[in-house]
Amino acid sequence: MIQVEQALSIIAENSTTMPVQKISVQKALGYILAETIYSPINMPPFRQSAMDGYAFIHSEKHQYDVIGISQAGDHTDIKLKENEAVRIFTGAFVPKDADTVVMQEHVMANENSILITKMPKQFTNVRAKGEQIVKEDVVFEANTLITPAAIGFLACLGITEVEVYKKPKVAILVTGNELVKAGKELPKGKIYESNSVMLQAALQTIGIKKVKSFKVKDNLKATKKALKNILPKFDIVLISGGISVGDYDFVKEALLENGVQELFYKINQKPGKPMFFGSKNETLVFALPGNPASSLTNFYIYVYPAIKNRMGFSDIHLPKLVRKLNTGFINTTGKTLFLKALYDETNVTILEGQSSAMLNTFAIANSLLIVPHDKESLKKDEQVTLLPIN
Amino acid sequence: MIQVEQALSIIAENSTTMPVQKISVQKALGYILAETIYSPINMPPFRQSAMDGYAFIHSEKHQYDVIGISQAGDHTDIKLKENEAVRIFTGAFVPKDADTVVMQEHVMANENSILITKMPKQFTNVRAKGEQIVKEDVVFEANTLITPAAIGFLACLGITEVEVYKKPKVAILVTGNELVKAGKELPKGKIYESNSVMLQAALQTIGIKKVKSFKVKDNLKATKKALKNILPKFDIVLISGGISVGDYDFVKEALLENGVQELFYKINQKPGKPMFFGSKNETLVFALPGNPASSLTNFYIYVYPAIKNRMGFSDIHLPKLVRKLNTGFINTTGKTLFLKALYDETNVTILEGQSSAMLNTFAIANSLLIVPHDKESLKKDEQVTLLPIN
Asked: Which residues are in the MoaB/Mog domain (chains A, B) (predicted)?
């Protein structure tokens, strides 16, 4: 049995970065760049007006003849003289000789001429070519997260594809003869299977949509065969159930006989103690507890960082928050506790109903409060650490 | 021109909740329940063992004959006598007469009998029928957010469908003759169109995947026709560009002639001042500024809460955080500012490059720092409010 921190280190060490792939910028949200991107163009690609107004050659004069128009999208070869101006709009090409744009609010105009009522400084309202980025300059370094703004910036530079780290393909293998699919009549002694849809939803919250669920009978032969089929095809395998003392052995045996290396088994925590972590080649195997709340807790604490690490993230864990505890709490277990809790802007409340079999508390919680194994009591008003979820 | 707070109120008042729909529990992540859910079964549906061990009738005796086995998924009619026990596993049916389960670690066993070395209290390790929830009791109240844990809980009760508020269908209408699709050669005077893919990505971050993009030429007739087609088919219409003074009028005219009611135009803020908000029937129209950083800012500040409101959320805005400012800041504009910023656990730094045309700062920011319009300066180390993004 190991401590939570050791388990986290072992997972971080063993979860290698995924291979890279080219992907369309439109589909790249939430991926990590695997290459440094250089700009193929100057942005803006030409001198642009920052205002609706009039472009002119800056001078002492206040009166100008309007000899043309430059709308957004136009390219004009108009040549300006010193007493001439061009009607211009935001984003439009600034004619070659002009160096300044006066905004239309600072002008009196008739059909053919303007009088500038408030003279701007030279170069005002003209965005220089390459002001945002110069051709060949770095757009984003490798290992940058692709956000909506990053997608916008890449698109405005005309970039259509980028190289990113792939998302892992995840399999969920459900064991348990007692499990019946929802929608069917429930025979005596059976319960509805819920962990696979719950884990699929949890995976979806971090952008993993390619998930395949498998179900296997509680026996060695079937489990061995299922794993033999699954292991080479997936990057992460989550096994639900079959990991507490009574029936663990044959899941372990099935894993070992399939060449999975055990990296740890059992963590000094509650809920979620009976968990197995191993690997084969680059594939990671998490055998999660069958109890739903334990399973989901260990998803957030262990599977989440493993997936983030494989995707190339540098911050792989759930972000931590610190809040003031509303009531005291005693921890006599000697284990690290992950308690379902509700936090607001300043405080946090530990919820009733922390049983590992019960999901209803988890469903209304917005965080997991961490009580370290060597911390015997938390006092009211003490600052505590929590992990926001949902 | 109105203040930010007024704009937010008008949007909240005018964004009605979407109609409801039945949806499979598996696909319900991130939706808000439109009905109160009652449990169709007791959970657990029978008395369940919480441990691997032996079920027996609690007494003073320490020695018991093992007369049978109850595995998870079994239903046994075994009748126990006072000196008899049944081998049992976690989650398995506890035989009718038994009232207690002793964990296997507290037993010495041979093939046919056990000696209890540490006697548990009566009723230990037996989960009562309906302990988690009793048949007909409330599972979730209406207006609950469906989280991974909620999906797990619904599934374990055998519930396969729930009634939720629909997600809005969103259209993006891009205006601007200067815009060229990425991947093509860039003619003189033109720039690449980026707002539609950026807004699509931003919509994706809040679970809106059904988005359709349209492009229209900068003229009244085309815009009117496009809007006539789009307005009845979508719940939210985002128009990109055509909203600054120079070319606003014909977008406005096209909207008004299509029966869209103007609810406000222009907000006292920077970036993002030139924005139009209106509605027709239940459809909301946001004409966002064409400048990319303004467009994305207004997405987070205004479109985001409108969508959350339509989906039935009670907390509709981005959550607010408070952090200590790393450097002072002067606001001479009299406007509310939304500044791209980077925060960590304690502090926040305002980034360089706040221009409304530039997305590169936005791409590396993790928050928008709010400077209220009537706040002329922020001091170093002052506590400031920010909205986390990405």
From this structure: 171-309
**A30-55 average pLDDT score:** 96
Tens digit of pLDDT for each residue in B373-390? 999 999 999 999 999 997
> Which CATH number characterizes residue A136's domain?
3.90.105.10
**What gap in Å lies between CA A235 and CA A279, rounded to an integer?**
10
Question: A57: domain range?
Answer: 48-127
Q: List Cβ neighbours of A368 (8 Å cut-off, separation of 6 or more).
A: A297, A300, A301, A338, A339, A340, A341, A386, A387, A389
Rounded to an integer, what is the distance from CA B262 to the centroid of its chain?
29
Q: Does residue B381 sit in the same domain as residue B301?
A: no
- Choose one of A310, A340, A361: the last residue of a domain: A310
Asked if residue A28 and residue A156 are part of one domain, the reply reads yes
Q: CB of A193 within 8 Å of any CB in chain B?
A: yes
Is B153 in the same domain as B264? no
Q: Is residue B316 part of a domain?
A: no
The string of pLDDT tens digits covering residues B154-184 is 999 999 999 999 999 999 999 988 999 988 9
pLDDT tens profile A299-318: 999 999 999 999 999 999 99
pLDDT of B116 over the 90 cut: yes
* CB-based contact B390 A148, cutoff 8 Å: yes
Same domain, B187 and B210: yes
pLDDT in tens, A13-30: 999 999 999 999 999 999
Q: Which residues pair with B101 in a beta bridge?
A: B55
In a domain, B315, yes or no: no
- Answer yes or no: do B195 and A158 touch at CB < 8 A: no
pLDDT, tens digit, 9 for 90 and up, residues A241-267: 876 655 446 888 899 999 999 999 999
ipTM score here? 0.94
Q: How many domains does chain B have?
A: 4
Question: What does the DSSP assignment read for B309-322?
Answer: HHTT-SS-SPPPEE
Q: Write the CA distances from B172 to A277, A298, B245, integer angstroms.
A: 46, 40, 21
Cβ of residue B244 closer than 8 Å to a chain A Cβ = yes
Interface of B with A in 129-168 (CB under 8 A): 132-133, 139-140, 144-145, 147-160
Do B287 and B206 lie in one domain? The reply is yes
CATH number, domain containing residue A325: 2.40.340.10
One domain for residues A228 and A260: yes
Q: How many Å apart are CA B80 and CA B61, to the nearest integer?
A: 14
Specify if A315 maps to a domain: no
Neighbours of A316 (CB within 10 A): 18
Q: What is the pLDDT of residues A4-14, one digit of tens each?
A: 999 999 999 99
Specify if A316 maps to a domain.
Answer: no
Interface of A with B in 330-349 (CB under 8 A): 345
Q: Cβ contacts (< 8 Å) between B238 and chain A: which residues?
A: none
Q: Which of A46, A151, A201 comes nearest B197 by C-beta?
A: A151
Pick from B304, B294, B287: which is nearest to B206 by CA? B304
Residue B345: both structure tokens together: 């656990």
Same domain, B184 and B142: no
Q: Tell me which of B127, B147, B182 is where a domain ends.
A: B127
Q: Where are the beta strands (DSSP E) in B30-74?
A: 37-38, 48-49, 53-56, 63-70
